[in-house]
Amino acid sequence: MEKIAVITSGGDAPGMNACIRAIVMTADQNDLEVIGFGHGYRGIVEDLNQPLRPNDMRLVSQRGGTILLSSRFPEFKQDKIAKQAATVLDQHGVGALIVIGGDGSFRGASHLARFWQGQIIGIPGTIDNDLAGTDTTIGFATAVDTAMEAIDRIRETAEAMARVFLIEVMGRHAGFIGLHAAIAGSAEAMLVPELEPQPKLADLADNIRRARKAYPDSSYIIVVSENLWPGGIDELSRALGQATGVTCHAAPLGHIQRGGRPNAQDRILSMQLGQSAVHAILDGSRTVMIGIEQGHVVQVPLHLTFQRDKPLDQRLVDLQLGLQQINFASNDARESA
Ligand SMILES: Nc1ncnc2c1ncn2[C@@H]1O[C@H](COP(=O)(O)OP(=O)(O)OP(=O)(O)O)[C@@H](O)[C@H]1O
Ligand SMILES: O=P(O)(O)OC[C@H]1O[C@](O)(CO)[C@@H](O)[C@@H]1O
Question: What positions does the domain Phosphofructokinase occupy (predicted)?
Answer without folding.
Answer: 3-281
